Amino acid sequence: RTVYVNGQYLPEAEASLSIFDRAVLFADAVYEVAAVIDGALVDYPAHQQRLARSLKELGIPLPVDPDALLDIHHELLRKNALTEGLIYLQVSRGCADRNFLMPHKATPSLVLFTQAMPLLDTVAATNGLRVISRPDMRWGRRDIKTTQLLFASMMKTEAVAAGVDDVWLHEQGMVTEASSSNAHIINDAGVLVTRPLSNEILHGITRAAVLDYAAESGMQVEQRTFSLEEAKTAREAFITSATAFVTPVVEIDGVAIGTGRPGPATQRLRELYILRSRSTHGG
Ligand code: PLP
């Protein structure tokens, strides 16, 4: 695999970041993951807008101009002949002696790599996911897409050790997100219910697109907090992320959601999302 690090395309075995890079020492870095289908980027402009916002929140400059960044994406996809999978991008503040005080003049590091993987036909899409709930103990700026992912990684690992697929995190019983995706339910009235945007959740690119498509297709959408209890008695539940698209959730804490099988509205939203993503390849 060829990867990109700070201006160079390299075989992955030859690529490296300094141990003094603040990504390593402080998770002082932000990232994006975009899906690639049919060799093309999905929702690229939205990912770039969120990247710009994350960087601004942390005061890290983007080390290349936006046109050059898009060229790097295309070149890396080409070099790796990627047709289906993801492209990962990380910008860190750069290198400095270890100090909690952020350096004024570090040179940001830019890293990109691709990962080939099936996204369209997956076991999770067919069978749905089983999740357990856990208190959300992450920090309070989950709207910034930083590489500080340790709690989410711990919870994902705990879920798999418990024999299920993932967690739904909650604050005082109100659902925030899954470990690496946004959480949604569809109630008995057919209304899509999802937590509103705030500092408590990542502003998912897939979430935004799916809410648009749902509304366009005549579905009612309510952005409000919802509880685990409400989720367990919902007709359908699902998650969204750049690589999961729309994936059904069929069980929460051992309680079957709806029929315990992926629901029709969720499946329709997944199909709609994939169809629209393919027809709006902007990359
Ligand atoms: N929430 C969290 C915590 C995430 O890590 C992610 C994506 O990785 C998402 C939500 C979904 O965001 P997106 O749809 O932009 O991939």
UniProtKB/TrEMBL annotation:
Pfam families per the UniProt record, alphabetical: Aminotran_4
CDD domains: D-AAT_like
GO process annotations (BP): amino acid biosynthetic process; folic acid biosynthetic process
Cofactor names: pyridoxal 5'-phosphate
EC number, UniProt record: 2.6.1.42, 4.1.3.38
Keywords: Aminotransferase, Folate biosynthesis, Pyridoxal phosphate, Transferase
Pathway membership: Cofactor biosynthesis; tetrahydrofolate biosynthesis; 4-aminobenzoate from chorismate: step 2/2; Amino-acid biosynthesis; L-valine biosynthesis; L-valine from pyruvate: step 4/4; Amino-acid biosynthesis; L-isoleucine biosynthesis; L-isoleucine from 2-oxobutanoate: step 4/4; Amino-acid biosynthesis; L-leucine biosynthesis; L-leucine from 3-methyl-2-oxobutanoate: step 4/4
Example of a GO cellular component annotation carried by this entry: cytosol
GO MF terms held by the record: 4-amino-4-deoxychorismate lyase activity; branched-chain-amino-acid transaminase activity
Enzymatic reactions: L-leucine + 2-oxoglutarate = 4-methyl-2-oxopentanoate + L-glutamate; L-valine + 2-oxoglutarate = 3-methyl-2-oxobutanoate + L-glutamate; 4-amino-4-deoxychorismate = 4-aminobenzoate + pyruvate + H(+); L-isoleucine + 2-oxoglutarate = (S)-3-methyl-2-oxopentanoate + L-glutamate
Keyword DNA-binding: no
Family, similarity comment: Belongs to the class-IV pyridoxal-phosphate-dependent aminotransferase family.
Physiological role: Acts on leucine, isoleucine and valine. Involved in the biosynthesis of p-aminobenzoate (PABA), a precursor of tetrahydrofolate. Converts 4-amino-4-deoxychorismate into 4-aminobenzoate (PABA) and pyruvate.
Record-given protein name: Aminodeoxychorismate lyase
Organism: Spiribacter salilacus
Lineage start: Bacteria, Pseudomonadati, Pseudomonadota, Gammaproteobacteria, Chromatiales
